[in-house]
Design brief:
Length: about 525
């Protein structure tokens, strides 16, 4: 890298991230062979709860898909390992005009796509423009401030903004702005994303829908060649089955083991269980398109009825903390909110009494089958809401079907989670509170014009102190609206065999598999 681009809020993010670091780690990465060098070769298998949905980087929102596509397609800038800054990646450098409206970006020399064609500025322009085109139907909202992208010559691009935009470099590090061949290499977008081509350390292998997806080594990768020959993510919805497969040596990594078995895995010989610091928040989303959740008093009543501390203790086994804000402590401009809804049954009953359902009602919550954490959360909610006269039915679908129902708005309430992909709050706030942010306000159909205006103002503000004030006000307003009931902040749990070396997860949840090796 020629230099790191430190975002002005680095100190805020770094300090806040420490909150979750204390959750503990046995250190799953960093090992090498006896000679000190990573071992080349080998096939890595990662078991996870849900299958991928698509490799279309511009319209896909689920992490299962994102973590795969990031191994194939790369952006101009990359989030650092500690999650607090962005660094040049496919870019080598950039300059910014005095009025902060024009960025000129120089491309790294010698980079080729996995099909052998050189990376050019025309590819960059096409890739960013295609993302922008999706608007509110995809990740295009992230590029809202971009006026025009121009290929100056083969090795440099110019990005003109409509107005100063604080998150630009962070936005260009998002997977949706990853660089692909101009005009999809002569294919349609549908054809291209069935077997995407990028500059990354791995290339598309095969997808057995509902079973597994595989990527293979890119021997001509511009960076250090990946050590592994291939990586396969298998779909194993049941957490206990994943644990048994790990212990039996059928898989190398268990993605998100349940917390009830985490302590046991940490003490199991031959297994490293690690809680990586995160920017994750788990929450209950209310579907305001369904009655009675358009009623703020109903939403507040539920938010005040939930015992988050009990969830942290019994669900996370102490590995986390109760959530009090839309933003997580590891996210820039997080503002602790002592007035956010927390367990208070008297307030819950007062709110319900003011609502359209003063005597209670029947509803349901959708969770992932085989997910013991969500199952425990839902059972705790079921017991607590019964005290308000709210009868809660727990509906379970496999993780892939749950996401499909969520995307279709086919739920009353749903337990969901978010983790940041860039070191700037705009990605999540725009996704969560702006109906045009790609998901109808995180699938809730929440729509408060005052909050939307606040978010847009924060996007364009370049003064950190003023921006912090805007985000603090936003966090207070959305907490009062209770568009979602925040549950807790938790680290990323992973368990892996001690044969796996160099596997690390950033606070934004992603990982670089080109750095991973596997001993014999």
């Amino acid at each position: 890298m020629t230099r790191s681009i430190r975002l002005r809020f680095t100190g805020i993010a770094a300090a806040a991230a420490v909150v979750l670091t204390a959750c503990g780690s046995d250190g799953g990465g960093g090992g090498t062979s006896a000679s000190g060098a990573p071992v080349d070769g080998g096939d890595l298998t990662i078991a996870r709860a849900a299958d991928i949905l698509s490799m279309d980087k511009t319209t896909t929102f689920d992490n299962s898909s994102i973590y795969v596509m990031e191994q194939i397609m790369e952006p101009l800038f990359m989030v650092s390992q500690d999650g607090t800054k962005v660094e040049p990646w496919l870019a080598s450098d950039y300059t910014m005009s005095d009025d902060k409206l024009t960025y000129t970006i120089t491309l790294r020399k010698g980079v080729k796509f996995s099909d052998g064609k050189p990376l050019t500025a025309a590819d960059v322009k096409f890739s960013i423009d295609e993302d922008t085109k999706t608007g509110g139907d995809g990740w295009g909202f992230i590029n809202a401030a971009i006026d025009k992208v121009t290929a100056v010559d083969d090795s440099s691009v110019e990005v003109k903004l409509k107005y100063p935009w604080a998150p630009l470099l962070a936005d260009l590090s998002l997977f949706s702005n990853a660089i692909i061949p101009e005009n999809y290499g002569g294919k349609t977008s549908e054809e291209f994303y069935k077997a995407p081509v990028g500059t990354g350390p791995f290339t598309w292998g095969e997808w057995k829908q509902g079973q597994s997806v595989k990527v293979v080594k890119n021997p001509d990768y511009w960076g250090d060649k990946p050590h592994l020959d291939s990586v396969t993510w298998t779909v194993v919805p049941d957490a206990n089955t994943r644990k048994l497969q790990l212990q039996g040596g059928q898989i190398d990594i268990d993605e998100f083991p349940d917390w009830s078995s985490f302590k046991a895995l940490k003490s199991t010989s031959g297994i490293n269980a690690t809680a990586f610091p995160s920017t994750r928040i788990d929450y209950v989303a209310f579907n305001e398109a369904r009655k009675p959740f358009e009623d703020v008093h109903v939403r507040r009543a539920i938010a005040y009825a939930l015992d988050r501390e009990a969830m942290v203790k019994s669900v996370l086994y102490g590995n986390g903390q109760a959530a009090d804000s839309l933003l997580s402590p590891g996210t820039p401009f997080y503002a602790k909110n002592p007035d956010a809804p927390k367990l208070d049954l008297d307030k819950a009953k007062q709110e319900l009494a003011q609502s359209s359902q003063p005597k209670g009602f029947s509803t349901s919550i959708l969770i992932n089958a085989g997910d013991p954490n969500q199952g425990s959360d839902a059972q705790i909610m079921q017991s607590q809401l019964a005290e308000l006269g709210i009868k809660l039915e727990i509906k379970q679908l496999d993780a892939t079907a749950t996401r499909a129902a969520r995307n279709a708005g086919d739920f009353d309430m749903i337990i969901s989670g978010w983790t940041m992909d860039i070191p700037d709050p705009d990605e999540w706030t725009s996704f969560a509170v702006d109906p045009e942010g790609g998901s109808h306000s995180a699938y809730t159909n929440y729509n408060n014009p005052e909050v939307i205006a606040l978010n847009k103002k924060a996007q364009a503000e370049t003064d950190d102190s003023k921006r912090a004030g805007l985000y603090e006000e936003l966090q207070k307003k959305v907490a009062d609206d209770a568009f979602a009931a925040y549950l807790y902040y938790s680290p990323y749990a992973y368990a892996m065999t001690d044969k796996v070396k160099g596997f690390e997860v950033t606070p934004l949840g992603n990982y670089h598999l080109e750095d991973v090796s596997k001993t014999k």
